[in-house]
């Protein structure tokens, strides 16, 4: 069965960096586009970044452009999100998704705070 398992979340100070990972299994990872979403308390889930199956095209929410980088390693069946210059308002649960949401991981908490 399809499984997506996120890791790498935690507590980081404003302006800091984190790298999230999403380990995929149960499907041919290299055949699918992937995405990262986030959901802050009391807010709707929003698309953060998207990457095509081969990694040749990426797209980002305007709010994270220039600070976040989505990437993938198809040999390792792993999706990444490198986040830098984090802001307190980016505290949220971050989810990886196959395509734009036919399968979801369980999420990893990112807290940006002093």
Task: Please characterize this protein's 3D structure.
This protein is mostly beta strands and 114 residues long. The protein contains no helices and eleven strands. The strands form two sheets. Strands 2, 4, 5, 6, 9, 10 and 11 form a seven-stranded mixed beta sheet that branches. Strand 9 and strand 10 (103-104) form a beta hairpin. It is globular and about 40 Å long. The mean pLDDT is 97.
Percent of residues in beta strands: over 45%
Structural class: mainly beta
Number of helices: 0
Low-confidence stretches: none
Q: Key terms for this structure?
A:
mainly beta; 7-stranded mixed beta sheet; 4-stranded antiparallel beta sheet; 50% strand; 114 residues; 11 strands
Short description:
The protein is mostly beta strands and 114 residues long. It is built from no helices and eleven strands.
How is the topology of this model organized?
Blueprint: E1 3-7, E2 10-12, E3 18-25, E4 34-39, E5 46-51, E6 58-60, E7 68-73, E8 78-83, E9 92-98, E10 103-104, E11 108-112
